[in-house]
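Run log // design_07
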């Protein structure tokens, strides 16, 4: 055998040995990881928190300065997924109810976070209702698995971040001088969402129009009771540059709402009347569209299904939020490419957000590029920051 043949043959043997050793090494690592994963369990922890609003939040039938939330994390193999339950009063949930629900869950029975449907089925069947608490788990498990995969959630779901809409910025009911101040604060946003439903509706709109000519969505929060008055008001609002009417009448008043939707020159959107996917069939033909909120429907997984089903019914879609931290708002933003409108400003209305997440750039929802839902806890010297880290 000449030198060239010898080198070729020994090289082939060496290569074969190298490949064999590499395969064995890979198989050994995979076997070790598989065995190790049998002993890894999902670890759930949570902490109550109270959001402080920048201004008194005045609606048609209520006012408040705070919103209770519960922040959660699900940990697995060095990764951590964050979630949030926000409980405005009308949902009927509280710190106590959410904590009671979370305490009875046993997520440690699951050793594979990617069995999302099994996990969420278990959570769903653990107790009736508790949609905000269930939303927190859903957000966290989607954040966790996307982080493990190393991808933003919207990319895993095949959604185009260039198709996100502008978000509205909420202006609550208030005295004219305060309303003007709120409009000035909302300068970076291209569309305003104005709360109406009291006796000063026209004054609210006229005050805003004295400051800006931006498009307006109005949210009546069930404040109107007479359909003829409502229709007349909608025509007036259209002349004032209003583009959407949200929940004008009582959520149970289907007949008058259907009549109003049929005659209205503007789309009528369900908010309080719509909670989860089971409501969609009966609202078809009564409303032009729906406002999907994670806290009402139980989380991202359900919200995505609702988006596609609503589209199949020919209904418009708004992605909204409660008063929330950047955690839940950034989670909802992941679905915004599927929506016609976004109302994702809940984190902008508070003074003690413990997260950094989704940004609004020139009025437009801009999705984070980080893996997961795109939130990072801020390094604050507070108890909640210690919990999140």
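design_07 sequence
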């Amino acid at each position: 055998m000449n030198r060239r043949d010898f080198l070729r043959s020994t090289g082939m043997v060496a290569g074969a040995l190298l490949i064999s050793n590499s395969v064995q090494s890979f198989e050994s690592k995979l076997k070790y990881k598989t065995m190790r994963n049998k002993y890894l369990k999902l670890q759930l922890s949570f902490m109550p928190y109270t959001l402080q609003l920048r201004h008194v939040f005045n609606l048609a039938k209520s006012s408040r300065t705070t919103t209770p939330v519960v922040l959660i994390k699900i940990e697995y193999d060095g990764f951590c997924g964050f979630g949030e339950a926000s409980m405005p009063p009308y949902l009927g949930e509280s710190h106590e109810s959410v904590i009671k629900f979370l305490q009875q869950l046993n997520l440690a029975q699951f050793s594979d976070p990617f069995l999302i449907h099994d996990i969420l089925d278990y959570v769903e069947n653990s107790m009736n209702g508790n949609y905000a608490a269930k939303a927190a788990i859903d957000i966290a498990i989607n954040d966790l698995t996307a982080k493990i995969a190393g991808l933003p959630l919207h990319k895993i779901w095949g959604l185009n971040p260039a198709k996100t809409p502008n978000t509205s910025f909420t202006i609550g009911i208030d005295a004219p001088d305060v309303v003007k101040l709120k409009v000035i604060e909302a300068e970076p946003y291209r569309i305003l969402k104005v709360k109406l439903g009291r006796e000063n509706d026209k004054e609210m709109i006229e005050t805003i129009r004295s400051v800006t000519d931006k498009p307006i969505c109005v949210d009546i929060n069930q404040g109107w009771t007479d359909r003829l008055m409502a229709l007349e008001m909608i025509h007036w609002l259209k002349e004032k540059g209003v583009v959407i009417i949200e929940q004008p009448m009582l959520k149970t008043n289907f007949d008058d709402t259907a009549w109003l939707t049929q005659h209205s020159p503007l789309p009528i959107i369900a908010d309080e009347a719509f909670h989860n996917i089971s409501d969609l069939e009966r609202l078809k033909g009564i409303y032009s569209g729906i406002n999907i909120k994670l806290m009402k429907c139980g989380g991202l997984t359900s919200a995505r299904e609702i988006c596609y089903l609503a589209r199949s019914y020919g209904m418009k879609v708004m992605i909204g939020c409660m008063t929330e931290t950047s955690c839940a708002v950034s989670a909802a933003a992941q679905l915004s490419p599927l929506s016609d409108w976004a109302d994702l400003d809940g984190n902008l209305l508070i003074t003690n957000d413990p997260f950094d997440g989704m940004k609004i750039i020139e009025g437009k929802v801009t999705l984070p590029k980080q893996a997961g839902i795109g939130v990072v806890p801020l390094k604050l010297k507070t108890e909640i920051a210690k919990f999140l880290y």
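The domain at 43-151 is CATH 3.30.390.10 (Enolase-like; domain 1).
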